[in-house]
Amino acid sequence: MWIQKELCLAARQRGFHLITDEIVAAVSAIQTVQIGLLHLFIQHTSAGLTLNENADPTVRQDFERVMNHLVVEDAPYYRHTFEGSDDLPAHLKSSLMGTSLILPISKGRLNLGTWQGIYLCEFRNHGGPRRLVATIQGE
């Protein structure tokens, strides 16, 4: 079976946001799958997705600090600056973090580790709502 659904996440402030519960609620077909995969794809070049720590919010804060250290704003050699000082860094961060995840589904649930959660990585100061495509393959 194949199922595909597009969803829209509300705008969030810049940072790393835990969205696991929001994804599971929006993609209720997960509950019908005994064994399969959920592919998540974010349709933006200035945001990303990753899987990491779901319990301690300081991990997400540290992700933001590290990414801002690795990819600085206002570097004098940037040429793509028309949309603001956070735009090119957002594109670079999106490529570094990635725009998709493939997650296992087992017995109607995402089969994540005990401390794993899905992050929306918002790299723009005012990124707006974010569109995702969720595709399930399974039985």
UniProtKB/TrEMBL annotation:
It holds the Pfam family YjbQ. It comes from the Bacteria. Coiled coil: none annotated. PROSITE patterns: UPF0047. InterPro entries: UPF0047_YjbQ-like, YjbQ-like_sf. PANTHER family: UNCHARACTERIZED PROTEIN YJBQ-RELATED, UPF0047 PROTEIN C4A8.02C. Belongs to the UPF0047 family. This is Secondary thiamine-phosphate synthase enzyme YjbQ. It comes from Celerinatantimonas yamalensis.
